[in-house]
Amino acid sequence: MPSAARLALLAPLLAFSPAAADEECVNVKVDLVPTDSLQMVVWLEKADGTFVDTLYITAKTGLYGLGNRPGRMDFNSGPIPNPVTGVDDMWPYGRRVNTFPVWAHRHGMSWPEVQFQDGFEDNLSHSISLSSVEGTPPYCRPISNDNDQQCWPGTADKVIWDTGTCATVVYTDKGRLSPSKTSLYPPRADVTVQSEDSDDVAMFNMLNPFDAITRATPAGGSPVAINWPVPRTVEGGDYVMFVEASKAFDFNATYNDTVYPGPMVSYKACGLPYRGQPSVVYRVPFKISGQHEVELATSYAGYGEVNGANGMLFPPDATITTDTPGSGALRLQLVADGSAMFRIRVQNIPQVDYAPPGMPSDLEAMNVSSTSAVLRFVESGDDGLVGPVTSYEVRVRANEEITEQNFADSIPVISTVTPVQPGELAMIEVKGLLPETDYHIAVRALDDCYKGSPIITARFTTGERVVGSVDACFVATAAYGSVMANDVSVLRTFRNSILSHSILGELAVETYYTFGPAMAGLIGESEVLRATARAALTPVIERVRNLDR
After folding, report:
1. d(CA 291, CA 6)
2. CA distance 269 to 513
3. Does the pLDDT of residue 469 top 50, yes or no?
4. How far is residue 140's CA from residue 431's CA, in Å, rounded to a whole number?
5. What crossing angle do the helices spanning 527-547 and 503-524 adopt, rounded to 10°?
6. Is the N or the C terminus of the chain less surrounded, counting Cβ atoms within 10 Å?
7. CA-CA distance, 473 to 492, in Å (whole number)?
8. Band of pLDDT at residue 30, cut at 50, 70 and 90
9. How far apart are CA 48 and CA 393, in angstroms?
10. What strands lie across the sheet with 411-412, from one edge to the other?
């Protein structure tokens, strides 16, 4: 019996029951267990291939714009994913159009392509006038795995590569919207427009429709449950659930850094080529109906195009690894379901919802720093104050109060809150904030049918910037203590009159402006480091003085 008709027959009976239902719904639940360092997207199609909806997408693509950020797709990357340190594609540049090519070519949407403001897509570094503070997460500056001086003239790269610890502050060009080129991926939606940014950045969040379904990249081995309340406009019948999983540096004999090397452009010494095995796709046919049904899949259905050039789903073949857990076809773990096994489990679950969820209470910000804050609130219940809620939705807004009207347009906080019971304390960390900025935060509960509670709000202000000014000669100023020091003026004159008038010189200046402030912050806080920096700059200054003689 079609689900709509069955629910229509159930409604009169429920209306006369002692506990009358406010709403009946059907919830489609997807269960899987990822391996380490995956990017994933989950979507639904009709059996005839008609795209229905995207149910879930990991934050790097859904919120931080991994598929549509400035720069070449084949820029090197790194460090290599490491679950111990939490490292996963830390670079700020390069549109990874090969992340989810099958999904990207099926969802039927497009966005303007995000390009560097100067239009030069081969460069990793840009003028300070075009570069604003980069929140961490998501991205750090490009680094070398062996302290190669051609990447960045510092000696800490190897440590950063091994530990996954970002520099304190990075400044990047957030880009602009192309007037002619389009992308099949959304732009990032996590940024607040700053004075150095293009006015287009203010539109990024409005253009991104996936914030409500975006989730943090799950830890390997941790079960992921995705709930999709079936809209009343969706008819019962035959459907197919798809999961596409992507992983950088997943090399084998067919797909590796020799076959797909990095580009021969500036900063080629930074990082390593990342293109390995392409995305793999799993599919589960199932029915949406008024009955509880369970369907399982144990093997992958195919793989995407390695460079994202098209949406072909290539059938399984010998080029994809099938015998190494976490690699290729085995990016999702095999899990027991009673006597059966699955990599993807899809359940069709009819549900009765008797009341909306209660509102969380006592929201407050704690441990506020210049770039982060910890939030605490008291949990509510699913039906009023009864039972745990299904999930919480947390959003943040800079310099403006959050209301019920603008909640959906505010930036989502990508952190997981696992509901426990009404009255329990929940904690969540908000990262990637700007210093010295007023923020408003809001939380609401969601129940089994994904009805939302009223929001609860709080306000806090982040601390002072931990690095020095972003103007003038950063490192020299930090070393000498004043922008007016004679030697700083010598370097500035050299920068303006000589370096800025040559290609290599301009490249050096842009590198200095993009990544110098982080180093200046460290130097300025230590007299020992300041003395060391002065000693290192002395021969440079002497050479510059000699050029004028």
Report:
1. 9
2. 19
3. no
4. 14
5. 150
6. C
7. 7
8. very high
9. 33
10. 411-412, 391-398, 438-446, 456-461
Q: How far apart are CA 290 and CA 200, in angstroms?
A: 46
pLDDT in tens, 72-112: 999 999 888 887 776 777 788 899 999 999 999 999 999 99
Query: What amino acid occupies position 175?
Result: G
pLDDT over 50 at 269, yes or no: yes
Instruction: Report the amino acid identity of residue 414.
Output: I
* CB 344, CB 244: distance < 8 Å: no
Rg (CA), the chain: 26
What is residue 475's predicted lDDT score, i.e. its pLDDT? 47
Residues 495-499: what's their mean pLDDT? 50
Interatomic CA distance for residues 161 and 173, integer angstroms: 22
Which of 108, 346, 106 is closest to 240 using CA atoms? 346
Q: Which of 30-34, 329-333, 399-403 has the lowest mean pLDDT?
A: 399-403
If one counts every other C-beta atom within 10 angstroms of the C-beta of residue 294, the result is 15
The string of DSSP letters for 386-423 reads: BS--SEEEEEEEESS---TTTGGGSEEP--------TT
Q: How far apart are CA 494 and CA 334, in angstroms?
A: 61
SS3 549: coil
What is this structure's pTM? 0.75
Lookup: tokens for 90? 């830390």
Question: CA angle at residue 98 from 97 to 103, to 5 degrees?
Answer: 85
Tokens standing for residue 248 = 């950088």
**Residue 9 carries which side chain, given as an amino acid letter?**
L
Q: Which two tokens stand for residue 18?
A: 């002692």
* Cβ 321 vs Cβ 329: under 8 Å: yes
Closest by CA to 358, choosing from 422, 426, 424, is: 422
377 with 361: CB under 8 angstroms? yes
Q: How far apart are CA 48 and CA 177, in angstroms?
A: 35
Q: Which two tokens stand for residue 409?
A: 């347009």
Alpha carbon 453 to its chain centroid, in Å, reads: 26
Alpha helices in 402-526 (DSSP H): 474-480, 486-497, 503-524
Maximum Cα interatomic distance, the chain, rounded to a whole number of Å: 98
Would you say how long the chain is, in residues? 549
Name the strands in the sheet holding 39-46, side by side, starting at the edge strand that comes first in the sequence.
214-215, 51-58, 39-46, 237-246, 280-288, 302-303
Nearest to 372 by CA among 433, 436, 461, 416: 433
